[in-house]
Amino acid sequence: MIYAIAAPIFYASIAIIAIAASRAVCKDIAPEEDGPPSGRPPYVILVVASAIVGELLMYWHAMPLQLGIAAMVLFALVACWCSDAVCGIVPDAFTLAPLAALMLFSFAQRDWGMMISAAVVFVPFALAAFFSKGRGMGWGDVKLVALSGAALGAPLVVFALAAACGVAAVVHHFSRARRGPIAFAPYIAAFTGIALPLGLAR
Fold it and tell me: Which of 51-55, 86-90, 135-139, 179-183 is least confident?
């Protein structure tokens, strides 16, 4: 019973720390003029959603290692969401550090699934970033996608990212700033977070 109460509080705290970290990174960064419009992230929703993820992981009897991976990935997702929404960037510190940790774990365990899943989604998004010169797809988004692949595994990450792209396209089509770029990291983070309990407890 105590774990069922502690888990949501712990993951909500992770989200709060991620929000603070994002604010610290973005406080001296002005959004680019040709970047996505700056907005206010839904801080309360992010904290509550993180708590729900923690509760679901406990309900599905996630192992301690899975709980640790979820905490690390949730921190990255919330921090990237907030950073992209506020200042239009996805800092490497929030993507490469957890991605490197997962890749080292994968290598140590000889579990090549994480690496393969990360590569499967990294390649097409990297090609999009390369050919659009970082405008249609930013390299920060590409690194976040690779983290999503490592955390969720294939084929779940393919469905999650396809949903993210579809919803982003629909929202952008009906938004006022249809001609400008969009902050894509929130969509990646949202659908990765939704799929995360299923991906880790599979």
Answer: 179-183
Say how far apart CA 30 and CA 122 lie, in whole Å.
28
CA-to-CA distance for 91 and 60, rounded, in angstroms? 32
Model pTM score: 0.93
- Cβ–Cβ < 8 Å for 95, 143: yes
Backbone angles phi, psi at 88, to 5 degrees: 75, 20
